[in-house]
């Protein structure tokens, strides 16, 4: 049976909070523009017009239907599996997140061409941002992992307001229920 990135295994390992994001709440977000699937550079320190907050969710990498995982034991890496279901959950909650005052963008170290395919296939109403140069990752000290010779972001979500990280969700689990958790937090903190 071909690999389906939308289906999460029942025994997916739960990531633990190793403190790798403890420094992020209150951090000033650097004035960086990253390539995005919208075709326009995206400033990560600015909340787009019409919103109060930017929800920037970071993920290791999206997969494609029928494409084998990056490494055979991908499902055994805590927090690795679930990028596509997470993106779809943010897509499905996009209207509610907007109503709660947030604009959403995804972030990975994949290049924009790869991300564009995923954004189009999944009908994402928000951009995916590429940090292939690791510029934002390095500036904020975002946690990464090395897999198959690639530097991948660990799954986390930053809520950015007025150029500062207001809140950081880390670790993120389960990935397919995370957008609902972010939405609940936004509603509680209006």
From TrEMBL:
EC number: 1.11.1.24
UniProt KW keywords: Antioxidant, Disulfide bond, Oxidoreductase, Peroxidase, Redox-active center
Gene3D superfamilies referenced in this protein's UniProt entry, alphabetically: Glutaredoxin
Alphabetized Pfam families for the sequence: Redoxin
Thioredoxin domain mapped to chain residues: 23-190
GO molecular function: thioredoxin-dependent peroxiredoxin activity
Record has Disulfide bond as a keyword: yes
Protein name per its UniProtKB record: Peroxiredoxin
């Amino acid at each position: 049976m071909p690999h389906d990135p939308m289906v999460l295994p029942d025994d997916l390992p739960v990531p633990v909070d190793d403190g790798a994001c403890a420094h992020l709440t209150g951090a000033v977000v650097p004035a960086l523009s990253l390539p995005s699937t919208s075709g326009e550079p995206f400033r990560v320190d600015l909340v787009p017009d019409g919103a109060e907050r930017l929800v920037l969710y970071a993920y290791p990498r999206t997969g494609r239907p029928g494409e084998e995982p990056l490494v055979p034991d991908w499902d055994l890496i805590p927090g690795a599996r679930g990028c596509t279901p997470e993106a779809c959950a943010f897509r499905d909650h996009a209207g509610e997140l907007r109503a709660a005052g947030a604009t959403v963008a995804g972030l990975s170290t994949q290049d924009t061409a790869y991300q564009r395919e995923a954004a189009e296939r999944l009908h994402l109403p928000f951009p995916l941002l590429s940090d292939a140069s690791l510029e934002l990752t390095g500036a904020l000290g975002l946690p990464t992992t090395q897999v198959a010779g690639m530097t991948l972001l660990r799954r986390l979500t930053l809520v950015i307001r007025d150029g500062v990280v207001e809140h950081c969700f880390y670790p993120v689990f389960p990935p397919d229920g995370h957008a609902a958790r972010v939405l609940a937090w936004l509603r509680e903190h209006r």
